[in-house]
Amino acid sequence: MLLMSVLTSILFCGGWLFPYLVYKFYGPFILSIKICVFAFIFCWIRAILPRYRYDQLMDLGWKTFLPFSLAWIIFSSSFLICFNYLP
Question: What DSSP assignment string belongs to 15-52?
């Protein structure tokens, strides 16, 4: 969970940068605050949500996520072709 918190804060939340362009704080301090926030959120979600069984996860993946992802691929490719946004 700690590694996932580090990767989430670096890749999706700006890493060591402060969101309001105030440079009073140092970069490692801001990064450690973001890591602690995401670790708390991950622990909180893990404590609240129930665990899924293996068959429930397979059912979720094959019957929900696979059709949704295929529909999204078809939608996005048809949008690109329709409006001539292809490179």
Answer: TT--TT---SS-HHHHHHHHHHHHHHHHHHHHHHSPPP
pTM above 0.70, yes or no: no
Number of H helices, E strands in the chain: 4, 0
List, for residues 18-41, the tens digit of each pLDDT value.
766 666 667 788 889 999 999 999
Q: What is the DSSP letter of 13?
A: S
Three-class secondary structure of residue 75 per DSSP: helix
Domain boundaries, the chain: 1-49, 53-87
Distance CA 43, CA 36 (A): 10
